[in-house]
Amino acid sequence: MAEIWGMYVGVKLASELGIRKLVVESDSKCAITLTQKMSPEIHGNSSLIRSIKELLVKMEDVEVRHIYREANFCADALAKLGQEHELGIKFWEQPPPCLFHHLLADASGMKFSRIVVQ
């Protein structure tokens, strides 16, 4: 599950950088539930989930929350960009060009509707 791996890499990096206060957001309700509520032993990625929980508990102030995909355009664009590069972590000094419109929309307070089909 890519969302669990992404969460692990992000939390691990925050821990290595000495970040003590962290907000983790994901549009994967499953990833949020697994790291907050469920016992990881019942999931195929149990060791990874356990590692995330161990890192989070060492931090001073952590909030793990679900956000809707419509509020997560930058993360989705970065995930797509990551599929085009070789494995590993990539750092940018400036946001990559694919984020320009998403960051501009966010900075201007643009809102997006969520359509729910029942």
Automatic annotation (TrEMBL):
<dbReference type="InterPro" id="IPR012337">
    <property type="entry name" value="RNaseH-like_sf"/>
</dbReference>
<dbReference type="Pfam" id="PF13456">
    <property type="entry name" value="RVT_3"/>
</dbReference>
<dbReference type="GO" id="GO:0004523">
    <property type="term" value="F:RNA-DNA hybrid ribonuclease activity"/>
</dbReference>
<dbReference type="InterPro" id="IPR053151">
    <property type="entry name" value="RNase_H-like"/>
</dbReference>
<dbReference type="GO" id="GO:0003676">
    <property type="term" value="F:nucleic acid binding"/>
</dbReference>
<feature type="domain" description="RNase H type-1">
    <location>
        <begin position="1"/>
        <end position="81"/>
    </location>
</feature>
<dbReference type="InterPro" id="IPR002156">
    <property type="entry name" value="RNaseH_domain"/>
</dbReference>
<dbReference type="InterPro" id="IPR036397">
    <property type="entry name" value="RNaseH_sf"/>
</dbReference>
<protein>
    <recommendedName>
        <fullName>RNase H type-1 domain-containing protein</fullName>
    </recommendedName>
</protein>
<dbReference type="InterPro" id="IPR044730">
    <property type="entry name" value="RNase_H-like_dom_plant"/>
</dbReference>
